[in-house]
Write a structure and sequence with these properties.
By secondary structure, the chain is α+β, with helices and mostly antiparallel strands. It is built from 7 helices and 7 strands; from the N terminus they run βααβββαβαβαβαα. A 7-stranded mixed sheet has the order 1-2-3-4-5-7-6. Strand 4, helix 3 and strand 5 form a beta-alpha-beta unit. Helix 3 packs across helix 6.
């Protein structure tokens, strides 16, 4: 499996992944037009033969706030760590941009907790609430929980736990 930036040729596959989860009430639906407009924020996981088997978006909301959204993995690839890898990829992208706070509004609370996110108050993210939540069809009965992570601190902690190949060679005298 490889994670890469999405390209226009991926739109139909991305749409199908998100639509399958939207029908289950796990994600909000996205139109093909919206996916095209935000192609630069999308990353995909490629499986065997180059098939798109997962997608995630990192949507920048403000100078120090981004959102992990539209996370979906193909049914036949569930339970293989692809979702976690996509979230970690998005968090690393946020950190590389200098964005500390990354949020997710999700019904998959335990999954995001395992990825290092912590529960937060939705009102702590007025940039999200005023931009997206007010127009959401779930506004009156929202079942999503706000979760957040400090991307920069998370990446630093991960890098301390997992030395790079160069660091490992140096430590081994190579």
């Amino acid at each position: 499996m490889r994670i890469r930036s999405a390209v226009m040729a991926d739109i139909d596959a991305i749409y199908a992944l998100i639509e399958a989860q939207a029908r289950r009430g796990i994600l909000l639906p996205r139109s093909r037009a919206s996916l095209c407009e935000h192609i630069q924020s999308l990353s995909v996981a490629e499986g065997e033969g180059g098939r798109v088997v997962g997608v995630v978006a990192l949507h920048v909301l403000d100078r120090d706030l981004a959102e992990v959204r539209s996370l979906a993995v193909a049914d036949d690839h569930q339970g293989r760590g692809i979702g976690r890898a996509l979230v970690e990829h998005a968090v690393r992208r946020a950190a590389a941009l200098g964005i500390h706070r990354v949020l997710s509004l999700t019904v998959q609370v335990e999954f995001f907790r395992k990825c290092g996110f912590q529960p937060a108050q939705r009102l702590a993210f007025p940039q999200k609430v005023w931009k997206d939540c007010l127009n959401c069809p779930k506004l009156a009965a929202c079942d999503e929980v706000a979760m957040q992570i400090d991307a920069v601190a998370w990446v630093q902690a991960q890098d301390l736990r997992e030395p790079s190949c160069a660091q490992a060679k140096t430590a081994l005298g190579g």
